[in-house]
Structure prediction request, 806 residues.
Amino acid sequence: MIESLKAEILRKLTYSLGKSPAVAQPHDWLTAGILAARDHVIDVWQRSTRDSYATGRKRVYYLSLEFLIGRSLADTLNNLGIAGPMAQAMRELGVELPEIETIEPDAALGNGGLGRLAACYLEAMASTGVPALGYGIRYDHGLFKQRIDGGKQVEVPEDWLSFRNPWEFERREVSHKIGFGGSVVATQKPGEVFWEPEETVFAVAYDTPIIGWRGCDANTLRLWRARAMHPLSLDAFNQGDLVGAVAERNRAEAISKVLYPNDSTPAGQELRLRQEYFFTSASLQDLVRRHQRQFGTLDNLPEKAAIQLNDTHPALAVAELMRLLIDHHGLPWEDAWRITNGTISYTNHTLLPEALETWPVALMERLLPRHMQIIFAINARFLDDVRRSTEGQDIDLSQISLIDEHHGRRVRMANLAFVGSHKVNGVSALHSKLMEQTVFAPLHAVLPGRITNVTNGITPRRWLFGANPGLTRLLQDVCGDDLTDDITQIRRLARHTGDSGLHERLAAIRRENKLKLAKIIRQDTGVTVDPTALFDVQIKRIHEYKRQLLNILETIALYDAMRSEPYRDWAPRVKIFAGKAASNYATAKSIINLINDVAFVVNNDITTRDRLKVVFLPNYNVSAAELIIPAADVSEQISTAGMEASGTGNMKFALNGAVTIGTLDGANIEIGERVGEDNIVIFGMTAEEVEAARREPRPSDEVIAATPHLQGVLDAVAGGVYSPRERDRYLGLVDSLKANDWFMVLNDFESYHQAQRRIDSLWADQGKWWRMSVTNTAHCGWFSADRAIREYAERIWHVPARDAKG
Ligand code: 26V
Prediction:
């Protein structure tokens, strides 16, 4: 094995890269390693694809505007089971595999949880034998890189393709025409119409194989790149208009140029709608053509294809599939609707009303005139049906309509997705319940049974076996080698929660992980941290509802307390933050600034030197998460209750043995149910209490007066104690908190502070602490993406999935 791998790597280096070992740079070795690994994947991939064709099995099409893959080499080698031999082969060639693995750029084609979920699910579908294609956009530039300059976030363009992407295959022959604008014209046949777009761009496919666990199956991630029909206008060129000559090309290619870095407001711009339609149409044309070729009819599409919409970004699929079936394949409306509804299902990922996508009718009419007609027609039939079947009842049709008439006529994409799907799911039990009770209550009333829940999951391959090999070896010792094939075996650990020998081994593994992280912290921020201190971690997008502000304000209270009672035996802590703020989200950026300002003051204070450090790690991404999570003692999951649909970081931390401090929100609730209330630290208002408090807000003076320490903390921040060179830097931040505590930062402060003191006393008893940690790991196997995929497969897609025993 090792000899043949060496030969393969050298062949790639020589014949694919044109380099000899003597002059090869680290990046060349990386590419040669990837190409060698890729060959192993391709054998599996071609067999999987052939098999799924030959057997005519139903396939899943996962449509997502985001796939947050991260790096692929280590994951691929692990899944193929050749990580060890590859490392040895490289070593014998004079190269350290772990070092070159870290220069692989992250594929950051996503913003956060939603994109990472899509990546976990692709891998889990390959690991459970569900034939699937992921469809998305091949952005030239992924999520921006974050630098911290003088405590402030600075966005730097990301350029993951600058060294080319050795994982992908360009498929020039697989391309589809995507139209925009123009008009709808009648054909000779009465009632038949046809869309004549004014503008057409090509969508060209780029395929990446996604290998499953043990290399049993591989699926495809097919990403679309926009190309112009006419890359150069000769007329303009000949007249010397060089800019005009490439204008069409620039306009077309803008569609796949850059990922929208926005998770704070839905991106309302035309380019975003063009992106959404571009990838939705390309994907549907692609799968319809494949189906037609294979089966010669579209009648049985629902039996052979399941289309999953990852949020409303691909919701135009409902209208696009109707258009293809009716206008291109001549089906009557009723048949087209049965097929569309039977094939499509939709996952909702947020209930925040301001986050729900709507598009102006006028914009849709201009850009997608035929789709707008179809949406009106779907709406008319739907409202008619409801009117007829609910005669005599008091139903407000304006609420379930696909068109919002109150805000200048807009298409409600969530309603379109809901009505066009046979199943609609939320991503945690609480979230799905709130879907029924709030945003989707009117639709739920007329379409009962359509909403269902599939609690999110994470792939244990990347987030446990890959990220935490030390812990994995120990778990295999205790739970058996088949743990990696069947994560539910992790439960066996529960028999050993009180085993002090086990605790010691776990502590040693955690210490190693913390040392590794401490080294990076020093490299990236210059701060030295003590690996024996409690590592308290909050890593995720910066958002008011995720309440990094609550965390940093409480950190200030702790800092104050440590200084006023220096002789108490404070548990040393390192407060670790990381995350990006949307570039136009001023409050989130101000929170990053505050964390860094507090860090500067605290880290330079010799009186708390051995007890408290505050760190903001720049440029949080998937690879950073893989390093940070296995080193965490405490996982901060402190969103305002009712606002975090699920959270998936919470699962990664708990599985790796961190103790959660969190609210009764999203998947925290289900983590608590599994690990038991003694093994999670819950605080704060419930979703119902939050709702009630918003209806009747308590005056903030009253809240502050009733909360010890809070006044002092707010005064210090507002008065410039942490920003001495710009004293009013945080005046606005504090004032707006006092004026309207929408996210319950002030309201939950005391409860959070007490919860942190509970953490202190639990940490003081290390025996108790490790018992909690073991219990978390033992009971979080359920949060595997494999379990989630099996639920989708059985209840929504109706496709078979392999169980753990194959
Ligand atoms: C969030 C927000 C929040 C406030 C205002 C505007 C706005 C706009 C967009 C979003 C993100 C929505 C979609 C999303 O990324 N949801 C995330 O999906 C994850 C996977 O299901 C889940 O774990 C996260 O809780 C959820 O925020």
Remarks:
- Residues 205 and 617 are 36 Å apart (CA to CA).
